Structures are given as structure tokens and as C-alpha cells.
Input
Amino acid sequence: MTKEKAELKQNLEHLAEQKGSQQAVSYQDLFTPQLMQKYTRFATIDFFVRELGVKDFTQIEQMAIDQVDEFVKKETKFASWEEMQQKAVSEYMMKLF
Output
């Protein structure tokens, strides 16, 4: 697991602890249509995933990070996949508090 993925997982676990549950936060909850439409050319995360060339969100982890970063740079307002994930978590957390 890369450092970025470990940090995202840690942030989500911390968030779940603060909410008093161990429920995982879904990628649809993180990458809302509002976030996707504001920062990308895609209406939803599912359209983003399909255009990236994978069948579902979980397959992104199996891709080369350079390939994902290049797609993110080209198709979004973010410089990297890590930055996009951090923004999604940040916006999600701001809604909760």
C-alpha cells in the first residue's frame, strides 16, 4: 500500500471513530457529484472511473500511480490522484462538522 493510500485509509478510519461507528465511508460519499462537477469534467465518480479505463473504483488501486496521476492532471483541476483524494476527504469532513 502506498503512503497516500495509507494516509487516506487512516483519515477515513479516524473519521469513522469520530462519528462513533466503524462504518466505512463509501467512495460515492467522498467523491460527490458536486465535487466531481466542480473540479472535473465528469458528472459523477462512476463516469470518471469508466473513462479512466477500469470497471469499478476499487480497481484504481491496481493501476500504476503514474497512469492515474496523468489522467487526473489531464481531466481534473488536481495535480495528482492523492490531491484529488485529499480534497474529497477534506470536503466530506467539512460537511460533518
Q: What stands out?
A: Residues 3-18 form the longest helix (16 residues). Residues 25-96 form one domain.
